[in-house]
Amino acid sequence: VTVSSGIPNLPEYVVVGMLDDVQTDHYDSITGRAEPRQEWRKKVKAEHPEDWEGQTQIAAGIHQNFKATIEILKQRFNQTGAGVHIFQLMYGCEWDDETEERNGFHQWGYDGEDFISFKLKEEIYVAAKREAEVSARRWNQDRAEIEQQKNYYQTCIKWLKKYLDYGRSSLMRTEPPPLSVPSSRKEPSSPVTCVATGFYPGGATLSWRRGEEELHEEVEPGEILPNPDGTFQMSAALDLSSVPPEDWSSYKCVFQLSGGQEVPTSLDKNPSITTAIVGVGVAVLVLVLGAIAGFIMYRQKKGESWR
């Protein structure tokens, strides 16, 4: 959940729901409505319309609360004038379907830094900034609020499992991805880029190795980016400007999905071959970790509680 002030041409308020690495829901202050971002999520909406309407109402209510919170925090931090300010909340639950271990989290941030968080196992609010200590003390004295937080996580786990049932065919699909196409090397000093595309889920690593040694200083890793079809892509560039072509064969690009097997691709000796292509099959998702139920029923604290 993000609310901002002083940023033109962007929605003032945005809510995004995530299940593992997949966006499931979206709400912003321009459209004023919650929208499903997955086909299976649309089915949940159709079969549970009361839940969907409740989510939209909650999202709209938190918007006004967060706008007021920014003004309160500006006073605490002695910030004057308009300026750009951002207040964020990330909350949800985690479930390991092998060990049955469960956890939950509520984390608030202000202007890009941690502000306050709720530790479920300790049942305590922890201030990350001096300016948050007054709120942490007040909330820790409110046992009814803490109990409500604990009850929320039980609801969150219930909906997390429901989402997994609806989206199982999509989330655990094993369709092979398309291969990427090599690009040309502009100059001999240009880096060699390894590209992996079409993999799913998004948790993955792409690295360069010389023999069995993983390289770091010579490598410029890229971010994991979404493809239009819901799969992901990433790249890693290797600087070989000081390596003679006859030694290229000792280098390899290694792709690995979280918890999956490594997929290595050796670099060709021919210096005209400038891109190592990794075609990656999609591994079966074994553990369900880090799921964020972004639109679960949750009673946001009243604005005056930040004072």
TrEMBL record:
Source superkingdom: Eukaryota
One GO CC term, this protein: external side of plasma membrane
Keyword Transmembrane helix: yes
Membrane-spanning intervals of the chain: 276-298
Gene3D superfamilies reported in the protein's UniProt record: Immunoglobulins (2.60.40.10), MHC class I-like antigen recognition-like (3.30.500.10)
InterPro entries associated with the record: Ig-like_dom (IPR007110), Ig-like_dom_sf (IPR036179), Ig-like_fold (IPR013783), Ig_C1-set (IPR003597), MHC_class-I_related (IPR050208), MHC_I-like_Ag-recog (IPR011161), MHC_I-like_Ag-recog_sf (IPR037055), MHC_I/II-like_Ag-recog (IPR011162)
Entry keyword annotation includes Ribosomal protein: no
Keywords of this entry: Glycoprotein, Membrane, Transmembrane, Transmembrane helix
Ig-like domain location: 177-268
GO biological process annotation, one example: immune response
Record family assignment: Belongs to the MHC class I family.
Entry protein name: Ig-like domain-containing protein
